[in-house]
Design goal:
It is a single chain. With about 260 residues, the chain is of the alpha/beta class. It has 6 helices and 10 strands, in the order E-H-E-E-H-E-H-E-H-E-H-E-H-E-E-E. The chain has helices spanning about 10-25, 50-60, 75-90, 105-115, 130-140, 165-170, and strands at about 1-5, 25-35, 40-45, 65-70, 95-100, 120-125, 145-150, 185-190, 200-210, 245-250. The strands form 2 sheets. Strands 1, 2, 3, 4, 5 and 6 form a 6-stranded mixed beta sheet that branches. A 4-stranded antiparallel beta sheet has the order 8-7-10-9, covered by helices on one side. The chain starts with a strand and ends in an 8-residue tail after the last strand. Residues about 215-240 have low confidence and may be disordered.
Length: about 260
Amino acid sequence: MKKAVAFWSGGKDSGMALDRLRRGGEYEIAALITTVNAAFGRVSMHGVREELIDLQADAIGIPVHKMYVAGRGCNDDYVPALRTALEIFKRREITRVMFGDIFLEDLRQWREDLLSSLGMTGIFPLWKEDTGALAREFIERGFKAIVCCTNDAQLTEGDVGRALDAGFFRDLPASVDPCGENGEYHTFVYDGPIFRRPVNFEVGETVYRPLLTAAPAGGASPSPAVAASSIPVPAASGATATKGFWFVDLVAKRPDLNDT
């Protein structure tokens, strides 16, 4: 069986892509690769604590390789970290890399060009699939997730912390892609067919982060935050301009030591 690594944001698309790849039986997944903001210890764009990524990987049964990106996560910081991470697996003769992308052509081309320069190949299990059908598949396969981040050009504070269920998909505005492929929202998946057990967590505070807000002095970690992203998020036709993002902080739930 051929070996591959899977880019893992901790959200629904990477979860469904991994499910597809495993069911296909062609690849053994050697590792999950997650991009973490080095200053804040949180997943880039999603704002999820890296501790929860560790718990996801343990519950799935695949080791995680964290790709730490310094600074504000712009390309000058991101690309060298990405190349370094991929070269680690290339030296292990693992040359296939999975992504959960669905229809962003420019992003796929960028990924494939970079992989080609390293002698590696991309795998895109969800590519060009209908996102409404994928949303239904997510529910039918028994996945469970929570909305951890919303783009305020499209969704609101009330949408973060919601379960990713039929009600959520039904309530989405017509301008929002069902899978949030344009960056309208991000998720944290905590149970489903790829998990050996659920990830146990608690929902914390909700905060708003404007775009391009400077990080706190002294390197203090905002909560939940990748503070503001320097990556522009495309808005669907008719949407207002993006001003920032709502995040909900998710915290690993510790077992009660008094439980028996």
